[in-house]
Amino acid sequence: FQINNISGPALRIYPQNQTANTNDIIDVYLYFDDVPSEKAVTGIHVDIVINTTELAFITDSFEQGQLVTQLSGLTLWPDPRYSEDGHTMSIDGAVYADTNGIFGTGSIAKFSLRVLAGSGTVNINIASDGEYLDMENNPIVFQNPYGGMVTVKGAVQ
After folding, report:
1. Which residues neighbour 73 within 8 Å (Cβ) at sequence distance 6 or greater?
2. CA distance 64 to 53
3. How many CB atoms lie within 10 A of CB 145?
4. Are 76 and 91 contacting, i.e. CB atoms less than 8 angstroms apart?
């Protein structure tokens, strides 16, 4: 059976829960969940926030997700920007007006993290002040984003 504890439209980290060892590299997806076509996104700004004593961004691992790559029109998704302290990765993207925008359920970006923590549970957060625009450049409001967690194996809980 399947449990859907996130009702869309939403932005989330996928998978929400992972298990890894110290020094493992894990793949993480920025994921749209049940975004209807009437809320199709044509512009986006999202900040992914981590604790750099627990996780580190693999800066050359960024890829566009399937909801972006399947668009027939042109898109502008430059490589993400990283804060000087390495805590934040900023993802910006735009879809040109000759497309329907990004909607549905699926990934909009994929990136990788190295697990640095020796034990415990570490978080991958989406800053709640992201920006999303529709075809007319009007803001779209989603519910609060859902972050993810990594449980480091061998951790005492």
Report:
1. 95, 96, 98, 99
2. 27
3. 20
4. no
DSSP-based three-state secondary structure for 11 = strand
Stretch (H or E) spanning 113: strand 104-115
pLDDT, one tens digit per residue, over 27-54 is 999 999 888 888 889 889 999 999 999 9
Cβ atoms 30, 142 nearer than 8 A: no
Cα–Cα distance, 93 to 119 (Å, whole number): 35
Sequence-distant (≥ 6) Cβ neighbours of residue 136 within 8 angstroms: none
Q: For tokens 């932005």, what's the residue?
A: 11
Tens-digit pLDDT profile for residues 119-130 = 889 999 999 777
Residues 6+ apart with CB under 8 A from 21: 115, 152, 153, 154
Q: How far is CA 33 from CA 28, 58, 62, 67, 88, in A?
A: 15, 25, 20, 11, 22
The pTM assigned to this predicted structure is: 0.88
